[in-house]
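ugh ok fine here u go
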Amino acid sequence: MHANQLSLGLAEAVRLVRGLLPSTAASEVVAVESSGTVNYLYRIGPGLAARFPMQGTDAALARETLLAEHAAMREFAAVSTVPSPVPVAIGEPSADYPLPWSIQTWIEGETATATSAASSTAFALDLAALIASLRQADTKGRSFSGGGRGGELVTHDGWVAQCLRRSEGLLPVDRLRLAWSSLRLLPRHGDDVMSHKDLIPGNVVVGADCLAGILDTGGFGPADPALDLVAAWHMLDSSRRNVLRTTLAIGDLEWRRGAAWAFEQAIGLVWYYADTNPAMSALGRSTLERLLADPTLAL
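structure:
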């Protein structure tokens, strides 16, 4: 999926895991099928998982990133309304794999899709409760930093323009360009709040049409209050989006900014993963379709 993607097979993963956890049997290390784009994932027995970064980078920088992610994971778990992974250990680079990697607890359940719980009111209420709890967490004086989603919309103009160019023939580019031209100028609403920052289906665990867990919590930190509202556009139908919005008492401006962040995320998924990760590409397409079809946005 990526130009600098590292390779990692089951045999190598088994050696790495058993080097860190010698009592683990080889048969307990199982590759997990996933639409994830950042880490290779292996389950270790009933209660643990190993995550190996897909993209090559400096090993010292990778370690700093893992340490920061582990701190964020602990902070998230302390305020989450549903189970989330907690860090267990960091593995060292070796001849089998050149970067530090991590072991964390496993969260039981099924990974969500764009439609698996879209019509579940219980799921929408669970999502609202989670977002509300995260928003109430103490930012400890921190504010958004970095170049990802969660700051100012206009800083993503270059990326969106590139995505629109690459999406010719795949999406209704003229309509999407017009939509971004209005979304990008929406003014900021409120101070930073604590946010998951990537509430896409692949990071959400469902069970019995309810929210059962949240994954990939290492990015937990301060951001635009509207950012976590992307979950509504990625995973809920129109009626359940209204349930979430009403429960959280979201005003028009903040709701539209949430739609803008969902647009910014989705517009890059369709073309970038068209051949290498069809599930992610399909997610981008379905989210954009929901945005364009929603009469409250009039895009």
